[in-house]
Model the fold of this input.
Amino acid sequence: MEPRMLVFVGSYAEADAFGVYVYSFDEKSGSLTQLDEVSGLKNPTYVNVDMDHQRLYAIAENATEEGKKIGEVVSFSIDTVSGKLNVMNRAKSLDAPQCHIQRDQHSRYLIVSSYHGGCVGLVALEADGQVGQQLDVQQHHGHGPHPNQNQPHVHSAFFSPDERYLYVSDLGIDRVKCYTIDSDRNVLVPQGEAAVPEGSGPRHLTFHPNGKFAYVINELSSSVSVFTYHSESGELSLIETVSTLPDDYSGENGCAEIAISANGRYLYGSNRGHDSIVVYEVHPESGTLTVIQHVSTEGRHPRHFALTPSGEYVLAANRDTNNIVVFRVDASTGKLNYTGQSVEVSKPVCVQPVYCNA
Done:
């Protein structure tokens, strides 16, 4: 029996509208079929899937009695047969709205990032998969030269391949800060930081499958910074920074997502403005990049995209045209080809395809 793929989508939405969606994905035809949609959450823009335990975690926005925006996390159980989601619990996670959620491989912790709060939070996960209490918050400080860098803007947190280190990209201060999790004290411990060129605005990152390189997509300068990764110390050393845009493009642009193929040969990044995905060939020895394609995302403002687990497809979420578009990956070249398959979704921000164990 072939494994079944489910796709989980987070979006901008009011609490009384649908904001989290579940689809099945047919790898033969490339088609998406909606299975569920969930309301009751304000701006559940980013989700994290724990398919081993059939759980989904979504960030959401709430407010205090005084009207101050706060962040919370909502846990769902996943019925892998029907694709339906059932709320388990919801808990406050930060004193500011959030833009990203991460989970460690042992499902002990959630890590939440706040762009507007300029901080990263550590949240407990209970043994039954419910969201526990806030354990720690690390507040960042500083600013950068770009108008959008008047204060820290934490955008994401990603683990190193062995999960010894946690890398937090701060768009506001042009730094990728490195932390470890002290599991005895349940706190985040700063370990150092890496800088991108001034005014770049680092947003998301990904590690090469060989564990030797890391790639950071810079939102403000429309570029990707390539680092060597020193697994013992956790240090990142900058090798090069390359553009995500064609040489002849002069319009506005802001980058969003970055991903690498499972074989490490191809790197992908999204351009919002140029409305494309850039495809790079990765040099196997040096980790450096060569642009081989810019492909239209068949919509506007590709806020996020994801390679399917098989690596055969890319799903791109275009926020401003309310669609998720399916591309087939050419295994021999890494290039993307539009399949003609697309579904309408209101303001999609995050798309997460996973094989389910039903």
The chain has a mean pLDDT of 97.
